Amino acid sequence: MTATSEAVHDDRVEELERELLTLRHERQELNRIGMALMSERDPERLLSMILTQARRLTISDAGSLYLVEEAEDGANRLHFLRAQCDSLPDLPQTPDMVFPLDDSSIAGYVAVYGIPIVLEDAYEIPEHAPYTFNRSFDEKMGYRAKSMLAVPMTDHRGKVVGVLQLINRKRTSQGVIRDDASSDEHVLPYGERALELVQSLAGQAAVSIENGQLHQSIANLFEGFIKAAVTAIDQRDPTTSGHSLRVTELTCDMAELMNQATDGPFKDVHFSDEEMRRLRYAGLLHDFGKVGVREEVLVKMNKLPPVLEAQVEARFEIIRRIIEVRHHCRRADLILDGAPKEKLAAIESELAEELERVDGYLGAIREANVPRVLAEEAAGILREIAAATYSDANGDQKSFITEDELHFLSIRRGSLDSDERAQIESHVSHSYDFLLNIPWTEDLQGIANIVRGHHEKLNGKGYPDGRTADQLPLETKIMTVADIFDALTASDRPYKKALPVDRALAILDEEVDQGGLDADIVELFKRSEVYRKVLETDWHEFLE
Prior knowledge:
The protein is of the alpha+beta class. It contains 19 helices and 9 strands. The strands form 2 sheets. Strands 1, 2, 3, 4, 5, 6 and 7 form a 7-stranded antiparallel β-sheet that branches. Helix 1 packs antiparallel against helix 2, helix 7 (243-260) packs antiparallel against helix 8 (273-285) and helix 16 (474-489) crosses helix 17 (501-513). The longest helix has 45 residues, at 192-236. The model has no long low-confidence stretch (mean pLDDT 86).
């Protein structure tokens, strides 16, 4: 072999080695990019990443991204979503635009036929081509688009989900292109290798977009389920309508305020997007366990259960009728015996007194049945009524009220006895058990634990577990404050009147003094006046 042949051979070997290194580097880059794309769940960041990486791989000055989507009328259209340009660093953000899905544009042609387009000069499109290039952007911004590559993003089923369009492949990344001269100086055509690279990336991008859309559809499905669950709760207990939504807004807004804190007790607190979503779901579902509470307990308006209340009302009506019938029989006998008028007047007075006593008893029962604090005097009257008897139609002695009725009427506060209150409190455990059985994704783990503690107090006097401050996550402590405030200030309920804001805030302070609530959270709640939004907004708007 001659010296010249050896030199040529050595040069060829070096060239092949460089190509091999380049191919190896490109493969590594594609693998790295593919892994990054597959792990990205945020659709905005995903689209920006696809366009940025495609430009970086090909040293492209500019690029744009389109997605194929279905319009409201069912027809497909092309949605322009992203544009980037190194030569125009202050490129204004163009509002989302949509185009008909046809072959009149370069991106449309690629999307319709699923084949790439490579142009050496976008201003010199072959006359037979159905598509054209719109120069209006170049003329407006002072730019010169020259070489162009548009590639379909095709998913695993062969469906085109979008178009990746690159403009002006450059000799070096530092080149700035604004006119014909600078484009001639810096721009290179897109070769076969660039096309292969971008097609590989476009395929990965399509799968990532498809996965992202699937992930989003699952999230939307679950969001719809949660809203349906909240609606179901509201339908079971209309008096608390909107409570879960308002608590969610308050809780998430408080978390956002903590994220913004640069000093104070929350300066080191930061809730990520995933943690905020977890907190939102926890707020919406915190009372879902109420579906497991008996309806007659859940919506109980008075101390007496409806059946017993109806029995008492009916019994007192019967007592009145028995008294009146016996009076009329006695009066008829006296008249037949020729009794004087004074005697007849006396029994009329006795009737009035007896009916007045019965009506007084019934009035006291109705008053005691209202779910408010039972005064000692009222409790004494109830004991008197329970001891009173009447003769029924058979002459048997019966009590004006039964032991069960006396039990409920003697409830000291609210409308629930201890057993019913335990049933209501069990909604926390029902919520926890329900949420625990959902196969949450990793980023949503912990929702059940947040919800379980929302009726706990820092001093261990809450329920269901009597947890203390160090056993409760920050999210639960925030939700507890929001839950108490809304319960105090929400619209009137059968068992209580809504409290004014200043009184509700005073009660939160009292809870802090007793060691039940976190002082820093309550202080932030009051100082920020975060509660005004839920007081001034119709809760139905939070469903949107």
